[in-house]
Amino acid sequence: MSELITIRRELLENLVDKEECWFDHHGGCQAHGHLDLEPGELCPQAEVKALLANCGEVRPPGTQTVPLHGSGTTGGPPQG
Q: In angstroms, how far is CA 74 from the centroid of its own chain?
């Protein structure tokens, strides 16, 4: 089941950290303190940045409906 929430885009833009993720040898995001990421899992900051980059239709003005999880975004720390 996909959960949806309506949130102001400006709120997300103000909460996102401008610093890029950087990962330790265990795959944790050192830049944002998410040290328990599983292989292929995105840092929450990277997930929010991806959602903002891929926002489409806005409804009502100033808001956006986006999936909280399972957005189909892949990525995460470098493997290997």
A: 10
Task: Give CA–CA dist 42/14, Å, rounded.
Answer: 20
Which of 9-18, 22-31, 50-59, 71-80 is least confident? 71-80
pLDDT in tens, 37-56: 998 899 999 999 998 888 85
> Which residues share a beta bridge with 5?
66
Q: What are phi and psi of 10, to 5 degrees?
A: -60, -35
C-alpha–C-alpha distance, residues 9 and 24, integer Å: 30
Q: Look up tokens 């899992």; give the residue.
A: 41
